[in-house]
Amino acid sequence: MAEKVISANWKALNDKELPICRFFNRLIQNRFVRYGFCLATRLGNGLIWYAFFATLPLVDPLKGWRVSLLMLVSGAIGYGLYKLMKHLTHRARPYINHSQLISPVKPLDFYSFPSGHTLHAFSLSTILSFFYPGISYLLWLFSSIVAASRVALAHHYLSDVLAGGGIGLIVGYTVLNFAM
Questions:
Q1: How far is it, in rounded angstroms, from Cα 40 to Cα 37?
Q2: For residue 1, what pLDDT band results from cuts at 50, 70 and 90?
Q3: What would the pLDDT profile of 54-80 be if each residue is shown by its tens digit?
Q4: Does the pLDDT at position 47 exceed 60?
Q5: Hey, which end of the chain has fewer CB within 10 Å, N or C?
């Protein structure tokens, strides 16, 4: 019974968010925009964060190891949370629910709530911005582009991305608070 209520609630929210999804999805009709969003999603899938993990201890021996460890802890907590939430909520991705939406890349899994890419981008940007405020503008710009790409590629609804960003901020700040 509870699953039927959740499904009905998702359907109502999905229908309300469809115009936003359509708007963003139309942007990828331009091949340069599509390429940019596909690249942002690919980098946000872990590549950029793995590069930080690997290089921080080398370029900043004094605190790089600590920052990498905090990012690793934050990433692990975020991964556990978003996997649990996807398992509990079962919200299908927009391109699955709405045939008029086009997804040019294959998603990592079937469910959309919350956005793991956005969760990790916000969580890890929170930690990196705390220790390296000089690059925070670039981190938050990249994180915002990753979030927008998830909607444009029809992998997430706006509420998935907002939830992922909020959870990511909470995880990032929580890890920082425990570490300080």
A1: 5
A2: very low
A3: 999 999 998 999 999 999 999 999 999
A4: yes
A5: N
- Residues 125 and 43: beta-carbon distance below 8 Å: no
Q: Which CATH class is domain 2-179?
A: mainly alpha
Residue written as token pair 């790089």? 64
Integer angstrom CA distances of residue 40 from 69, 106, 150, 152: 24, 14, 9, 11
Backbone phi and psi for residue 163, each to the nearest 5 degrees, phi listed first: -65, -45
The radius of gyration of the chain's CA atoms, rounded to the nearest angstrom, is: 17
Average predicted confidence (pLDDT) for the chain? 88
In the chain, where does DSSP find H-type helix?
Answer: 2-27, 31-42, 48-59, 64-89, 94-97, 116-131, 136-152, 158-179
Amino acid occupying residue 96: I
Residue pointed to by tokens 């019974």: 1
Amino acid letter for position 149: S
Phi–psi pair at 115, nearest 5 degrees: -75, 115
Domain positions in the chain are: 2-179
Measured between alpha carbons, how far is 86 from 88 in angstroms, rounded to an integer? 5
Q: Which residue has the higher pLDDT, 28 or 115?
A: 115
* pLDDT score at 10: 79
The predicted model gives 132-143 an average pLDDT of 95
Residue type, 23: F
What contacts 180, CB < 8 A, 6 or more positions away? Answer: none
